Amino acid sequence: MNDYSYLMKGIVPLSTESSTLISSSKYLNDARLRDWVSTHMLRRNGPDVPTPSDSIQLVLLLRQLQDIDHINALFAEERKKNAALDAWFEEGYASTFQREDLAQYAPGTVGNIFYRQLVDNNLQVDIVPPVKARNDYEYFNFRAGQQHDLEHILGGGGFDFIGEVVPYYMRLANLFVHLSPELAGELSVFSILGSTRIITRAVLHYPQTWLTVLDAMERGAKVGRESDPIYLMRYEEVFHMTPEDARAHLGIRGVRIADTAAASAEWN
Description:
Number of domains: 1
Radius of gyration: 20 Å
Largest sheet: none
Number of strands: 0
Structural class: mainly alpha
Number of helices: 14
Shape: globular
């Protein structure tokens, strides 16, 4: 019989008067999040539950679970020492362009690439309804939603499911490079959980795609580490540029393009 006592030492049994599951982690304490994690980290893909629906479920859950007042307090402290972030919030810029506005841009430009993606897939610019941000946290998430598709184009992530890993890891690295760790951590809860479902499902059910997923993680993290603050970037001012010129203008570095479409097709 194997003896694992060395590896098990240090575990302290605890007792509690609680009649329900409880821990020091608010994430572990939430039954809805436990269900989301166990379901979407472990499940196979299927047409009955399209993969994009995973993330909106997570967004709605985290809005209730995270302490928004605390996150806004962290933003307030960050703004005192980060003039660029403070000015970004003060301006409160929001996109107003629609799909048809992108038709004017020449082939090969960022605007045209985005336009073709929208038209070819019968999509509009606003995947989720626009909202009037009431605080820094809401504005940060609002702009992140407006920026997401452009992060695919300029960060080198394909518009397919495995391609989503690139912008996920761009932000996971970039936020920790440019913001205080606690604030970056709060802003990364969605990204770490949303991206990890792709990682675990690739290994568990689609191992032939794993090296493609791993490469997407590495590519996204490299861009995030080497680039200027991604969350401050105004992609709307580079629609007329090629992706290469737009990256130089915005301060996006370390991009390496790779095709993830074939591997993503094996998930369907």
